[in-house]
């Protein structure tokens, strides 16, 4: 068989099938997330093994050597910012490093772990505008800008409104991993497994055994440690969501149309904006908001902003009903929030 | 010569695995680019052409393979090893769903499977005469997938897409001379693989395909 035969055989056999691009992208994305988790896990194991060896050996000598040697892992590059820290929030860079207190604005690197205390909460801003809010007693490991390992507690991910997904973020838990498809969702570690509640959009869940489940708005998945999945409906608001409002990251409302501010507030509260009349909707679109709502919860922000307008808003079940505050009130075309911008 | 190539391939596999497990991003991309499409083509006909099922199975197989990479001992090539995992995934998928027809391919027959995996053929196989043109053509493509991925790609680009050596070098991120050398090795490897799979009938392959 000569080279010409080879060419004839190849041409006659025809080209090999090419996987669809969408399939290739989906598998690549999922596989990459798994690989990142695997690498992060491997680092942790090596660190633990190194720790046991250290304890068993000559401690003083080992410490001396350790001081001189570079860390096995450490911050590799900034991948997130701590947008908000309330109460106790601490960061650790390596396994022998201590937990250092951090405050809002701190840059966070791949490989760092973040934890909140019993009265602490934190909000991380990740690439592409994705935010992740940490409840009390939560600990995460930043495996990268697109991957967070949830080691304890609960995380609320907000990938922004709209059907188009923002930057990807995989949340890896002991029972599997989650990926948003344009969404707001909460994932909480339980003793018996993991609970996922989707407030908006869709989330893809991949169990450790490779099984994939999807969950949409208003759905709750409880995945037990043995891999069984229980599906139920969940409310989009209420007491169990209150911690989300208490950990609302600061938003810049300066120059924003009131209608846009109302949409933001409603989304934060898990509600939909309902205008009492089309006129009020037009009015809200024409009012421009000035000031700052930094440090306020969405409800407090509503009170502060609407106090200077003719518009009122009231939470009624699943709606944020927007009406007229006082028919005699003559609104200006701008509104100032209680806390002036600095 | 073949043995040296196999040793080199295993060494490359091991190095790729080491780099991947150490967190090397380029190694991960190389792993994905080398194996995804080939494993996909391995699974697709076994799942009756069901693209969604193939996506799930390949994703699961590659995930499991990655998790077990540290255990890979190199008794077979990495691709063969991943295909074995994929084969189990296919069976599990079909068993769990009970809705996909189980497709049995001629390359799943034990003797031929051994031949393809080890690139050694039992003499009693007369594939060219036993099977139709379509099956032989498919088997040629399976053989192509058994070669190192850049060999298969380079051969396809050269002979089917008509790429020049310079373009192939660019597509592989190597120089023209290196591409020329790679193409020469790829032709030898493909010829040897065909002869091993089709045995004495290899020369008839072109004729049976109507070439």
Written account of the structure:
The complex is a heterodimer of chains A (342) and B (211). By secondary structure, chain A is α+β, with helices and mostly antiparallel strands. Chain A folds into three domains: 66 residues, no CATH class; 165 residues, Jelly Rolls (Sandwich); 88 residues. In chain A, a hairpin with a 2-residue loop joins strand 12 and strand 13. Chain A is globular, with a radius of gyration of 25 Å. Chain B is an all-alpha fold. Chain B contains eleven helices and no strands. In chain B, helix 1 crosses helix 2. The two termini of chain B are 30 Å apart. About 3% of the residues of chain B have low confidence. Classes of the chains: A alpha+beta (342), B mainly alpha (211).
Backbone structural class of chain B: mainly alpha
Q: Which fold name fills CATH's third level, the topology of the largest domain in chain A?
A: Jelly Rolls
Q: Which word captures the global form of chain B?
A: globular
- Beta strand % of chain A: 35-45%
Number of helices of chain B: 11
Rg of chain A, rounded, reads: 25 Å
| Strand runs of chain B, count | 0
Order of helices and strands of chain A: HHHEEEEEEEEEEEEEEEEHEHEHEHEEE
Strand content of chain B: under 5%
Tell me, what is the CATH class of the largest domain in chain A? Mainly Beta
What's the overall geometry of chain A?
A: globular
Number of helices of chain A: 7
Specify the helix fraction band of chain A.
25-40%
Range of helix content of chain B: over 70%
Average pLDDT taken over every residue of chain B:
78
The class by helix and strand makeup of chain A works out as alpha+beta
Quaternary organization: heterodimer
Architecture per CATH nomenclature, i.e. the level-2 architecture of the largest domain in chain A: Sandwich
What is the CA-atom radius of gyration of chain B, in angstroms?
Answer: 18 Å
């Amino acid at each position: 068989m000569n080279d010409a035969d080879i060419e004839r055989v190849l041409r006659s056999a025809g080209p090999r099938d090419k996987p669809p691009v969408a399939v290739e992208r989906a598998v690549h994305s999922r596989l990459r997330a798994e690989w990142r988790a695997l690498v992060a896990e491997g680092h942790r194991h090596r660190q633990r093994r190194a720790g046991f060896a250290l304890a068993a050996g000559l401690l003083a000598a080992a410490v001396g050597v350790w001081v001189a040697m570079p860390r096995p892992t450490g911050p590799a590059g900034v991948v997130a910012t701590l947008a908000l820290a309330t109460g106790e929030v601490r960061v650790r860079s390596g396994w022998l490093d201590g937990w250092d207190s951090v405050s809002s604005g701190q840059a966070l690197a791949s490989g760092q772990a973040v934890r909140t205390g019993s009265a602490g909460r934190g909000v991380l801003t990740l690439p592409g505008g994705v935010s992740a809010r940490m409840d009390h007693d939560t600990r995460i490991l930043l495996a990268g800008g697109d991957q967070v390992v949830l080691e304890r507690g609960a995380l609320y991910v907000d990938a922004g409104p709209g059907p188009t997904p923002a930057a990807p973020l995989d949340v890896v838990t002991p029972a599997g991993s989650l990926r948003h498809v344009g969404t707001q969702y909460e994932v909480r570690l339980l003793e018996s497994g993991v609970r996922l509640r989707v407030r908006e959009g869709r989330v893809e869940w991949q169990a450790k055994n490779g099984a994939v489940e999807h969950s949409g708005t208003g759905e709750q998945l409880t995945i037990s440690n043995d891999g069984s999945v229980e599906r139920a409906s969940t409310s989009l608001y209420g007491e169990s969501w209150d911690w989300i409002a208490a950990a609302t990251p600061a938003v810049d409302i300066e120059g924003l149309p009131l209608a846009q501010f109302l949409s933001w507030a409603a989304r934060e509260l898990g509600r939909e904006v309902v205008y009492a009349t089309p006129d009020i909707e037009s009015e809200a679109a024409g009012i421009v908001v000035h000031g700052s709502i930094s440090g306020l919860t969405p409800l407090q922000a509503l009170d502060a902003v609407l106090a200077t307008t003719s518009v009122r808003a009231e939470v009624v079940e699943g709606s944020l009903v927007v009406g007229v505050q006082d028919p005699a009130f003559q609104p200006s075309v701008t509104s100032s929030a209680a806390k002036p911008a600095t | 010569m073949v043995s040296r190539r196999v040793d080199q391939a295993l060494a490359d596999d091991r190095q790729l695995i080491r780099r991947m497990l150490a967190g090397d991003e380029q190694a991960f991309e190389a792993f994905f680019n080398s194996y995804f499409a080939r494993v996909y083509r391995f699974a697709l006909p076994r799942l009756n052409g069901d693209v969604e099922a193939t996506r799930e199975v390949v994703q699961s197989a590659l995930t499991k393979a990655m998790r077990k990479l540290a255990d890979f001992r190199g008794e077979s090539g990495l691709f063969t090893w991943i295909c074995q995992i994929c084969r189990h995934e296919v069976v599990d998928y079909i068993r769990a769903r009970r809705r996909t027809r189980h497709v049995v391919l001629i390359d799943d027959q034990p003797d031929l499977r051994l031949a393809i995996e080890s690139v050694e053929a039992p003499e009693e196989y007369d594939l060219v005469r036993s099977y139709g043109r379509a099956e032989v053509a498919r088997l040629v493509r399976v053989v192509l997938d058994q070669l190192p991925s850049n060999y298969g790609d380079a051969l396809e680009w050269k002979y089917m897409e008509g790429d020049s050596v310079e373009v192939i070098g660019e597509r592989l991120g190597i120089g023209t001379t290196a591409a020329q050398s790679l193409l020469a090795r790829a032709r030898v490897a493909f010829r040897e693989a065909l002869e091993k799979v089709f045995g004495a009938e290899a020369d008839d392959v072109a004729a049976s395909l109507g070439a």
